[in-house]
Design goal:
- The chain is mostly helical and 113 residues long.
- The chain contains five helices and two strands.
- The longest helix has 17 residues.
């Protein structure tokens, strides 16, 4: 299965997660967000970029508890809450933020713990 974003074909699984995170770019992220009825804003980009940066250095997906720690360091404790993250990604960090960041579908959705 594949989708075409800005003339670029990318492979996706049956739920729309990228099969290869290397095919991700900002245009793909915007299109994936639109499919989820989300508009990318500064706060969403901050989290998506955290996920991408962590993946690029470790090849692992960032767990939510680590996202909260980074948010606290970067933006203060007001934004470093599960409530804030779920406001940005109402169906869950693992289901939405990781998808927009171009990650493969997590085998375990323990990312939201």
């Amino acid at each position: 299965m594949s989708l075409v974003f800005e003339g670029k074909e990318v492979g996706v699984d049956n739920e729309g997660y990228l099969l290869d995170p290397a095919t991700w770019d900002n245009d793909v992220a915007v299109q994936l967000a639109e499919q989820l009825s989300l508009e990318m804003n500064e706060d969403r980009w901050q989290i998506v970029n955290m996920v991408r940066e962590h993946y690029e250095t470790t090849t692992c997906v960032l767990e939510l508890r680590k996202v909260l720690k980074l948010l606290k360091e970067q933006s203060g404790k007001e934004k470093a809450t599960r409530k804030h993250v779920y406001y940005l990604f109402p169906y869950g960090y693992g289901q939405m933020a990781c998808k927009i960041a171009g990650m493969r579908k997590p085998l375990k959705i323990l990312l939201d713990l």
